[in-house]
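Need Enoyl-CoA hydratase's 3D structure for a figure. Predict it.
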Amino acid sequence: MTTTVITPYKNLRVESRGPVAVLSIHRPEVLNALNRETLAEIEDFARRFLADPEQQALIVTGSGQKSFISGADINELAVLDPRGAEEISRFGQRVLDRLEQAPKLVIAAINGYAFGGGCELALACHLRLASDNAVMGLPEVSLGIIPGYGGTQRLPRLVGPARALELMASARRVKADEAERIGLVNRVVPQDQLLPEAEKLALAVLKNGPLAVAAVLEVVGRGMQMPLADGLRLESSLFGILAASEDMHEGLKAFLEKRVAQYRRR
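Structure prediction for Enoyl-CoA hydratase:
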């Protein structure tokens, strides 16, 4: 598959691999730490990605082999007053919300360190693959603060409140094998296979009905924030909407005719 490298950003590297975009956080001098400028670039990229009909899935990773994202930029945090701290927290939350709520698949390919804001970004992705050298955690309490980009809410939803509280309150880091065991990542792969496996996963998803994939991302994402009864109503509503689509009829017809479906996103 042809790879096109696009670099309109200072702290990001963007590649286009057919229908899959690869976004690499590129601040190697600080182990890819997130600062305000990088968050703004991610937000701009997300807007462009979501508007591009040719790009249907996104892989987020970190440049190099040592670090996915080492956390928020400590130099920026050190000079924040209370108002500035709340503002940057809300800004980071907004950027990560955009990834989490995307109607296109977003996969975190976690290579190495994923601490603080880096772990929070991974939590906002729909799926997470980790290299065998990955280490993850939300250790903010060891600095006298708490996670500010959604980690206090997303981690309990993913691994359960008791385990999440233990990890955050103790500032404990977890290695890749434990992260997989507790459900923090979907699976662990050798480091040299991380991006190929993430791309393979993305392409496997993209073989399916695109309207249905977008709907399942929505119903799971929104459903996690609803009472069960409301989530079930949303499921029924989307089920009904899809039943009126050409894609559903094409999918059923292709199954009966034992051929590959030709979906048209309508």
